[in-house]
Amino acid sequence: MGGSSWQCQVCNEAQSKYKCPCLIPYCSLPCYNLQESLRKPLR
């Protein structure tokens, strides 16, 4: 039984290695920062 093979839900190009607090799988810090900036409401 191997590890999870979830795809990054931000770039859709790499296997995700992490999950943010909102449970979106992502592969790298740039993807995390991008999805966090998209989640915040614009002022």
Provide an overview of this structure.
- The chain is of the alpha+beta class.
- It is 26% helix and 9% strand.
- The protein contains one helix and two strands.
- The longest helix has 11 residues, at 29-39.
- The relative contact order is 0.22.
- This is HIT-type domain-containing protein.
- It comes from Rubroshorea leprosula.
Outline the secondary-structure elements.
Blueprint: E1 18-19, E2 25-26, H1 29-39
Antiparallel strand pairs: 1-2
Quick structural gist:
The protein is of the alpha+beta class. It is 26% helix and 9% strand. Residues 8-33 form the HIT-type domain.
Mean pLDDT: 86
Quaternary state of this entry equals single chain
Placed side by side, the strands forming the largest sheet appear as: 1-2
Quick one: how many beta strands? Answer: 2
Q: What shape does the CA trace take?
A: globular
User: How much of the sequence is in beta strands?
Assistant: 5-15%
Number of helices: 1
Q: Any idea what the radius of gyration is? A: 11 Å
Ends apart, CA distance between termini: 46 Å
Report the major sheet: 2 strands, antiparallel
**Class by SSE composition:** alpha+beta
Helix percent reads 25-40%
